[in-house]
Design brief:
It contains 13 helices and no strands. The protein is mostly helical.
């Protein structure tokens, strides 16, 4: 009867086969919680983090910028200590709540100090990258990678055409700028996702798996809901500015976001991650829905775009089908 391998036995076997280095850290020991339980716990952690930040604000009334920055650093340090102390669910949730509250406090301090949406998003991106590297908890690393991608998207977006508001004054983005900005934001993240998959054996052997695996999951999560995150208010405004003609080619972003979501689904399938596959499929459907509700051009133009996209997909499907038939021996 076969017996389960211990972590030490598995490490020794991998070293013997030359798959990892002898000095590489042992494989991660993850908990047995299903992913949907982790999602519920994560949502509870976010809610607790918001209440923790409100509690700190009411009790200590920190001064703008400086006070919130100090409070945020203290809460992040406490979260780091709780994560490092053990793997019990209670301490993990408390650490997550403190971490979320600390990050929100630092983001508020950055907003007060810079008075710039683009500057705040850029600083939040840097903060999330640091947390991805230093936090000793996998879920915290995944969330940091995810929010780093979203903050990066918002930083580029705000830097190019300012903030999006619910007022009648809407950004009128030309076609070229809309396409270039989307490529600047998402192509590096797509390339990073592909590189992490292609170089998996190398970073596993070099001992970077705790960071690389979390970054991989966070990147795919961000790609799955790309446009929803970088255009948070675009689907909530159902009116056009009065007066001049209104043309906003950001309306193409949901279709491009659907493409990135399908790419994320393919990557998640290659990684055998069912939760990410489901998220990516849901993200693709939501992007198609968002395409119809985002204003910026007429329904006739949108219909023509969808016809063109459908024709391209039919041609691509035929090409894939022919390649598959060509690979079957006669």
């Amino acid at each position: 009867m076969k017996h389960a391998l211990s972590v030490d036995d598995l490490t020794a076997a991998l070293v013997e086969r030359g798959l990892i280095k002898r000095k590489a850290p042992p494989p991660e020991q993850t908990d047995d919680r299903p992913w949907y339980i982790s999602v519920v716990l994560g949502g509870a952690g976010w809610l607790a983090g918001l209440f923790a930040l409100a509690f700190v604000g009411v009790l200590f009334t920190p001064e703008p910028a400086g006070g919130f920055a100090v409070a945020g650093m203290i809460m992040l340090a406490a979260a780091f200590g709780l994560y490092a102390a053990g793997r019990q669910a209670f301490f993990d949730q408390l650490a997550l709540a403190l971490s979320i509250a600390g990050q929100l406090a630092l983001a508020w301090a950055a907003a007060q100090a810079t008075e710039s949406a683009a500057g705040t998003a850029a600083l939040v991106t840097l903060m999330q990258v640091v947390l991805l590297i230093v936090m000793p908890n996998r879920m915290a690393k995944v969330l940091s990678a995810f929010f780093a991608c979203i903050a990066w998207a918002l930083a580029v977006r705000f830097a190019l055409w300012g903030e999006t508001t619910m007022s009648d004054v809407r950004a009128q983005v030309p076609l070229g700028l809309a396409l270039v900005s989307w490529l600047v934001i998402w192509v590096p993240l797509i390339a990073a996702s592909q590189a992490l998959i292609a170089l998996e054996a190398r970073w596993m052997a070099e001992g970077w798996r705790s960071i690389a695996r979390a970054a991989q999951s966070g990147l795919l999560m961000a790609l799955a809901i790309a446009t929803w995150a970088s255009e948070p208010l675009g689907s909530l405004v159902f009116w056009t500015p009065s007066g001049a003609a209104y043309v906003n080619w950001l309306v193409l972003w949901p279709l491009l976001g659907a493409a990135t979501a399908l790419f994320a689904a393919i990557c998640a399938y290659r990684l055998q991650n069912r939760a990410l596959v489901g998220l990516a499929i849901a993200g693709a459907l939501l992007h198609v829905m968002q395409f119809y509700y985002m204003l910026g051009t007429t329904l006739v133009v949108k219909s023509m775009i969808m016809l063109a996209v459908g024709a391209v997909l039919i041609v691509a499907a035929r090409g894939v089908e022919r390649r598959g038939q060509g690979g079957i021996p006669q």
